[in-house]
Amino acid sequence: MPGSAAISCLGPWPKDVGIIAMELYFPSQYVDQTELEQADGVSAGKYTVGLGQDRMGFCSDREDINSLCLTVVQRLMERNSLSYDSVGRLEVGTETIIDKSKSVKTVIMQLFEDSGNTDVEGIDTTNACYGGTAALFNAVNWVESSSWDGRYALVVAGDIAVYATGSARPTGGAGAVAMLVGPNAPLAFERGLRGTHMQHAYDFYKPDMISEYPVVDGKLSIECYLSALDRCYSVYRNKIHAQWQREGSEERFSLDDFDHLVFHSPYCKLVQKSLARLMLNDFLSHPSPNTETGPFTGLDAFRDIKPEETYFDRDVEKAFMKASADLFERKTKSSLLISNQNGNMYTPSVYGCLASLIAQRTSSQIAGQRVGVFSYGSGFAATLYSLRVTQDHTPGSGLDKLVSSLSDLKVRLDSRKKVSPAVFSENMKLREETHHLASYVPRSSVEDLFPGTWYLTRVDDKHRREYARRPLDDDLPAEPEVVRSSTATEHIPSPAKKMPRIPAAPTGPEAAVSN
């Protein structure tokens, strides 16, 4: 793995800290949005065209946030032949809270027990859909700090997005993403280039402690998302301009300087509008835009508008969506595979978009490119940052391995089982009635789950949850349960070979949006 480079390669900072490996998990069943339109009695295209959604994945009562995260972590470790003692930090970003005290991270630690590794920093991080990004930043900061002991950091973002019956329900989804973080990464963070905006608002929140459903102010949530995007882009541009000026360049930063852009995706149509919004920002900040030829052709009528007055201006939206259509096709559209086919995963959403982008390209096509990443969580918190893809795309390189590991995404999506809207509604009703119960045994079939999926076996009378794993090979018996006690009975297969430790480096400086 890239993280095992010699210390002589690292310099005063760990070199190219970022994402080394990624793994995705999404449910094995979905509902078709066209069929859901018909079942809900809404106009044709309301969900598929208006929201840009084709399919929506969902979980039965066999899955919860713990099982999703157990599945994605073990899958990443197995597919990359990693030993559990090579991980020194594990942090979970989620807003799917099933316990107000015990973290998801502590549940995942059962996977580490056979290795004997309990020296693992990090805990859960929560703020709507931003928790995964906060956890990722914490992991990167740990590797670049005096606290780093030379091992990998592991970041998990997972959620189950469900809504009460109504207009927001089609914007649901579920899934988890695990990311291995360390130096010499194929997706390296561009140091110092983060534009963040934090502000108080009640746009989407979950005050009911016994319900999975949020309270949503749809119009306000869209305004918060777009205003955060404006502010983050402005801060990011100021920071990169300052860097360029220190290097002697007076160039202006624009969307052209991103090779790709991925966004938190509550629904795909909002992402397309968001790219148009960034073009509006470029247009308004340009000292003398050419409205006769080029991308700003015919936009002179919008020269004097104020961005804060245009969140719901259909004329502005239509004009800039048309002007940015080519940019969307080239820079963003391919990132919406998971979002379009599985729905909003909350904290993993933007990282599902990143994985979708990588999965549909060869390593040579993406090598050396800059990827802009916009993360948003209601309440609200947002950051725009950028990743630089390594130039090394040789066979067996870190980038080649990353691209290869994600190349099966479409095949996995196509292997899911379609269920009727009636069955989907029954599942939602069952979750609503049982997700908080003690002394509960799930009713849904285990056979419908993907091989290798962790699932809930029972909740005892003290709300303690027990899990088992569906075998990777259907000819094998089910793996023993992980029990609620401090000693797990599930056997973790030993990796093919133990990973060498990463050498330590010296310290250095540093609908609704549905959250």
By CATH, the superfamily comes out as Thiolase/Chalcone synthase
Helix content: 25-40%
State the low-pLDDT regions, or none: 2-11, 483-510
- Main beta sheet: 9 strands, mixed
Q: Topology as H/E string?
A: EEHEHEHEHEEEEEHEHHHHHHEEHHEHEE
- CATH topology category name: Peroxisomal Thiolase, Chain A, domain 1
Question: What coarse outline follows from CA principal-axis ratios?
Answer: globular
Class of secondary structure makeup: alpha/beta
Q: Using DSSP, what is the number of strands?
A: 16
Give the count of helical stretches.
Answer: 14
Question: What does this protein look like?
Answer:
This protein is an alpha/beta fold. The strands form four sheets. A nine-stranded mixed beta sheet has the order 5-4-6-7-1-8-13-12-11, with helices on both faces. The chain has a three-stranded mixed beta sheet with strand order 3-2-14.
Helix-strand blueprint:
Blueprint: E1 18-25, E2 29-32, H1 33-40, E3 55-57, H2 65-79, E4 87-93, H3 104-108, E5 124-125, H4 131-143, E6 152-161, E7 173-182, E8 187-198, E9 204-205, E10 215-216, H5 218-246, E11 260-263, H6 268-285, H7 314-323, H8 325-331, H9 337-342, H10 349-359, H11 363-366, E12 370-377, E13 381-389, H12 398-406, H13 409-414, E14 417-419, H14 421-434, E15 454-459, E16 465-469
Parallel strand pairs: 2-14, 4-5, 4-6, 11-12
Antiparallel strand pairs: 1-7, 1-8, 2-3, 6-7, 8-13, 9-10, 12-13, 15-16
Record keyword descriptors for this entry.
single chain; 515 residues; alpha/beta; Peroxisomal Thiolase, Chain A, domain 1; 9-stranded mixed beta sheet; 3-stranded mixed beta sheet; 30% helix; disordered N terminus
